[in-house]
Amino acid sequence: MVKRVMSLLTAIGAVVAMLVFLPATSASAATCAPAWNASSVYTGGGTASYNGHNWLAKWWTQNERPGASDVWADQGVCGSGGGGTEEPDPSGFVVSEAQFNQMFPNRNSFYTYKGLTAALSAYPGFANTGSDTVKKQEAAAFLANVSHETGGLVHIVEQDTSNYPHYCDTNQPYGCPAGQAAYYGRGPIQLSWNFNYKAAGDALGIDLLGNPWLVEQDAAVAWKTGLWYWNTQSGPGTMTPHNAMVNGAGFGETIRSINGSIECNGGNPGQVQSRVNTYQSFVQILGTTPGSNLSC
């Protein structure tokens, strides 16, 4: 009997030893849950991923960011197995593909994340100037204005076709070689008018005056035109949107640079607030603060 007990204990010890020396499963290999969405409702036991971690909801929650509220329990690092991981993109862009998808859940498939990151080389200072906070704020500001202009990256071209013939300034020496109705709004900031197509094309080294349709056919070109305006044009404002964000003028000045008095100074406070709300949502997704001077 004693020998049988000893044999059993020896067998158990061997199993324990095997378990001890089995290679541990890395927490980083865990599959990420679907990315956290500020507008989604999570009940107790619900899961979401945020900033490269999986999180477990302890009770009902909505718009309470994981890591900033005790309603969420950190379940550890998640790896490349799911869509919610927040690992930096190889391009160095401060917005990951998962965060981009979270910002634009209903976007048109034309507006690809790869198209955006491919366009970044045209303006390397964009979302890459100043502190990490400023970089994220600028990226959020650009994408919030883009979201407003395109209905959440749904519209590639201007929807009111009756406006199309109006965007040809025949007083320009180069005229409208693609046709009088060819220079309607396209892309993430709805590039319009023949002189804007000429200026953007010259800056980017692309013949957009002769072939404005490229902006609705090539995602990288479309994103580049948006970045061209953001980084080089003050529009009806006093500074470029890029300078507004990196020099501390605030999100409100980016609105002024895009639409001026049409929205600012009481022109359309509802539209201004819509842009501000989107910006605040996007900086939350990026895990930073919105800064001051949000309105115009």
Automatic annotation (TrEMBL):
<keyword id="KW-1015">Disulfide bond</keyword>
<dbReference type="InterPro" id="IPR000726">
    <property type="entry name" value="Glyco_hydro_19_cat"/>
</dbReference>
<feature type="domain" description="Chitin-binding type-3">
    <location>
        <begin position="33"/>
        <end position="75"/>
    </location>
</feature>
<dbReference type="InterPro" id="IPR003610">
    <property type="entry name" value="CBM5/12"/>
</dbReference>
<keyword id="KW-0732">Signal</keyword>
<dbReference type="InterPro" id="IPR023346">
    <property type="entry name" value="Lysozyme-like_dom_sf"/>
</dbReference>
<dbReference type="InterPro" id="IPR036573">
    <property type="entry name" value="CBM_sf_5/12"/>
</dbReference>
<keyword id="KW-0378">Hydrolase</keyword>
<keyword id="KW-0611">Plant defense</keyword>
<dbReference type="Pfam" id="PF02839">
    <property type="entry name" value="CBM_5_12"/>
</dbReference>
<protein>
    <submittedName>
        <fullName>Chitinase</fullName>
    </submittedName>
</protein>
<feature type="signal peptide">
    <location>
        <begin position="1"/>
        <end position="29"/>
    </location>
</feature>
<dbReference type="Pfam" id="PF00182">
    <property type="entry name" value="Glyco_hydro_19"/>
</dbReference>
<dbReference type="InterPro" id="IPR016283">
    <property type="entry name" value="Glyco_hydro_19"/>
</dbReference>
